[in-house]
Design brief:
- There is one protein chain.
- By secondary structure, the protein is an all-alpha fold.
- Helices cover about 45% and strands about 0% of the residues.
- The longest helix is centred in the last third of the chain and has 18 residues.
- The N and C termini lie far apart (about 45 Å).
Amino acid sequence: MNLRKRIALAAATTALGTGLAVVPAAGATASAAPAAKPAAVTAATDARLAGPYGCNYTNSEPTLSLGSRGKAVKEAQCLLKHWNVDIGRHGVDGKFGTDTRKAVREFQRRIHRTCHMPVDGIVGKKTWHALKHTGC
């Protein structure tokens, strides 16, 4: 394997291992000349990177409760899965039902003492913050 391929393989492995998604620039081909910017910079400026935990349904953080639906619910469900909380048999479906409420309460219960988190089954500002960050 030549040096160029080894470097590309090492960069791709590092990017995948850290959760960084490298996307080739539009119109790029295998025989195209190297771009002026590294692929990671191009990907970052094009906002093509996945969220910090692989969830990238939305960046909005509305208050969610039983009956809520949509991309924000999918984002919360995905983040709950990231923190190893069982979200029920329906998985990430964008519907805030009883399984999702139970999962939210379980997550809140886990961090209740450390973060003074209310255990109410509602995804509000504090819960969103805790879902997206390792600390309170």
